[in-house]
Amino acid sequence: MVADRPLRASSLKCSLILASLAARLLQRPDQLTTFGYLLKGRSCSSHRSLLASSLPTTSLGKMRKWRKAEPDMAWGGYGSQAEAPQKTGASRAESSSNAPVAIIGGGLSGLACGWSLRRRGIPAVVFDTGKRGPGGRASARTMKVGSGTQVVDHAVQAFTAQSPEVRELVGLMESDGAVRRWQGLVGDLKADGKLQPRNEKMDGPLFIGSLKSGSGALADWLASKQEVVKDIWVAKLGRISDMAWALQGRRGQNVSNAYRSFSYVVIAHNGKCADQLINTAPVQTAAHAPLKCRFTAEASKSSDRLELCSLWACVVKVPKGLATFEGAFIHDNAILSWAGNNSAKYPPSGGHDQDVWTLISTPEYGSANKCPQEAIPDHVRRKVSDEMCRAFGKLLRGASTSWEVVHLQLWGAANPLNVCNQHFVHDPQHQVGICGDWLTSPSVEGALFSGLALAAALERELRGGGLGGTGARRFQGLTGGHAIGNFGGADGLSVAAAVEAATRSGGKGQDHGNSEGKGKGMGKAREEGAYPAAGGAAKRPLVERPVIKPAQAAASVAEPSWPDLQVAATSKSRWRRTENVGVPVTTLPSNSYRSTAPCPGPASAAEGPKWYFGFGANINPWKLREQRQILPLEEFVGKLPGWKLVFNHKGGFGNIEPLSALISHGASSPDAVHGVLLLLKAKDFDKLAKMEHEYGTREVLVETYDGRSIPALAFITPPQFKLSASLAPTPRYLKLIRDGCDSMGIDPAYRSWLQTVSSTPSERGSEYYAVQGSAGQKLKKQQSEGDPELLHLAAVASFAVAGDTPLVDIGANLGKCSAPELAAQLVRASAARVGHVILTGCSIKSSKDAKRMCEEWNGEKGVQKALSYLGVASRKELDAAGIQRLPTLAFTAGVHPHDAKSCDGNTISTLRSLAEHPSCVAIGECGLDYDRMFTPREVQLEWCRKQVELAIELDMPLFMHERDRDAVKGAPLGSAGDLRKIIFESEIDPSKVCIHCFTGSDKDLKEYISRGYQIGLTGFAAMHKRGAHIRRFLEAGDLPLHHLMIETDCPVMLPDKQYLPDSLGIKGRTNEPCCMPAVCRAVAECFRVAPEEVARQTTENAARFFGL
């Protein structure tokens, strides 16, 4: 005992020295080696524990990173020697990074990769050097010509789309007007001046850009749907850890203020700049070899380098009608390889009497006249301009060449002359990828396909799909292509097939990484747990983090642990990272929480980022990112102990409540709510709060899966919007939550419990909306003198369409409105001069509800009922407006395809009985919906046929629904064709068929019109972005006015705000019948007629069709 005292004193002295040194090292991180070796078996475990406990939490993180920097350090007991941790086989999805993918290069391939990653729920940021915008070679200029302007394609001229995914993408662009089909005469121009036209049936159509932006519209469309950082030069790649990259500018600064690290780096450009960039990386990757390049005019048969050519683009004004063709691939010419008439592709604005052509040189001519492309010498400019114009004049049989050159450009790295015959390069070990048309098919399609394929590969690898590295093959000279790009595209190959091929090959092509590719790794060296260092230096062991269990995550900070530990709950967990961007982390007991009173208002935009805990549909990355356009700065999975997910929010939506507040809690129910912890920008949180407008905010303490506790805000239902009991949610809402939990790697036991939650088999009834906030409390409030809920009847009346013809809303869904809400909506509809509202029956229950509403709200009885629900101020408005009657209600009786699965042997007899009611004017809404497939296809077809037969039996009109699979989900499934077949085989009078809420294609519309069907248009026609294709149909006269009826389809399909004055008092995104004038005006705008004419004709059509 006596001998132990000096040892304790010595130990205390040593500990104080270590603590002092640690404090100094916080100021001098460059001394980390000294610090590391002091802990390398030279002090007892108690010293290390005391030292660790003396450091603040942020310092501990630094200490772990320093330990990472010294892989040979010992972290065992006294005198022990550390061993490198063994590989665990954990998927990339189990890594601790939710940092985005960095895509360097804003050409079409990089943009397509970013767009596809975003659709897959994977955050990505594109960095583009272009000062004028992204797009690379797919760019255009608007040039002043004469007194007008001309859109000019000065690189990409046209493109094909043969692979399924590229066709789908181009189809989306085409529907938004970003691309068009080139209908002009295009072919191969021989030396004798004869033109051989393209065979469109064999080669497919050629696509060009939009009228306004030319080929630049492709990049603009892609960029508008993702995050693109413009005019930025990434000069250096750095590694923060073996799982994270950093991007730096020329001066060493971080290129992005929003992101400090990136989970992957995708290089989406080539040439010297790309080669220089990859060589700044501190590790040797699979991207190093294929990015080596050289410039030449003639490709080698086989090469270990990418070979690039240079091309001149000359834009010249020539007399109109000089050539009989609009575009030509020029053969056997030493100077020119292409000539295209921009004025034919993009009609000029303003006046000029000349055509503007783009001439493109051959690679040989580009190489022979190469110069600095940023500063072309005057003598080179004159020489090239003269020679290219003379060559074109000679092809046109000696035409005069005294033409004005309006633009001359040298594309230094214009096109590859060889390819390595693979669609992407992927190094999962170092988190690097390459995409670009130069890998396999120099063309727009090749660029798009490569980006889409790499995105699919990254998703598969990140989510545990087992995709191996692809390495890079030797380059082979191109055959059968053309100087301005191989228009052969991807030969119809699908992205899935390309990724599958890469998976099967496992990198069997030449790896260029000093090893032959074998298996699913990047070569033998990688299989042995080593990788080649930069410059071929000696190999060193890989350091991989072990996968730990939740119980291990809360281990003492004094114990040895690897940096950036995260819990791998399942093989699908993803996008987690440990940096907290300066947001404090509170280490409180896991069962604690703090709360504040519900606060309905959004946060101040001036405040910093906010942690938000999502437990409902916002768990789903697709819902949050794609639909709501919100990109989190940070993202973790976590749980809220002592709370339960319930569905007692108005409409049967999700809410959370403390277990202590619940009367009963099932033994099998989880004791915590699991979800996602998101760090949102203040403006994004405000945006989300407005969308969740009937929720309040409450601060809770969320426990992340790695054991930390972080205060966050959650949206919780206030009393006025809470149902008296938890009800079954809708199948769609429950599926969003389940899919989100699967995607985010939520605890398997919690996901299993969600599978036991039942959903409502049919349409929600009034019990889903019987809350104090929308009925009792609002009624009490409105019946007081200080009624703040004005109906804005004066504004609505002035908004009505002029003339004597009242409008007919042929499709409205009002069954979910409370009685006070319905009273207000009907009064406002009357003020907007809506004479009839037809309530849509979508199920047996909603059809019966519609019948009851007609009985209760029509005539004087309805007026008196409405008055009983209006407050004093609203009744004064009513008197001032002189409104004495409400719109006449009618209804349809039918079963929507979503609810067809609930049909049974009594369905048709019940519908037949409902149809006998005098207010029933049609059978429907029936039909086919192949988008969500809530009911199997065969069942939809069966009950659609039966309802068509019922309409024939009763000699009643058919009110029909048809929707095909959304383009973002895949190829169409043919719902329109199936519906036409059913109608045709039934031999029903076509004039008794109405396709309600039409949003389909031009082809389907023309088919419906040709058969004599009526078409119903909603506020979709008043949406300039979503409904752009419908507006084009109207402008083109594809839908005659005598075949048209209009509707709101409320509460959805709200027109754009430009058609709805603020004075109307329309709140949020809720549509209602008083918005009918907006639909009428939008249609009239497209037809270029007065709204009164549209009102007159559509009301006549509706009266005739429904027998009103």
From TrEMBL:
Report the superkingdom from the record. Eukaryota
Fetch the Pfam families from UniProt.
NAD_binding_8 (PF13450), TatD_DNase (PF01026)
Q: Where is the composition biased (Basic and acidic residues)?
A: 509-529
Read off the CDD domains from this record.
GGCT_like (cd06661), TatD_DNAse (cd01310)
Q: Which InterPro entries match?
A: FAD/NAD-bd_sf, GGCT-like, Metal_Hydrolase, TatD-like
Concerning Gene3D superfamilies, the annotation shows: 3.90.660.10, FAD/NAD(P)-binding domain, Gamma-glutamyl cyclotransferase-like, Metal-dependent hydrolases
- This protein is called what? Uncharacterized protein
Origin species? Polarella glacialis
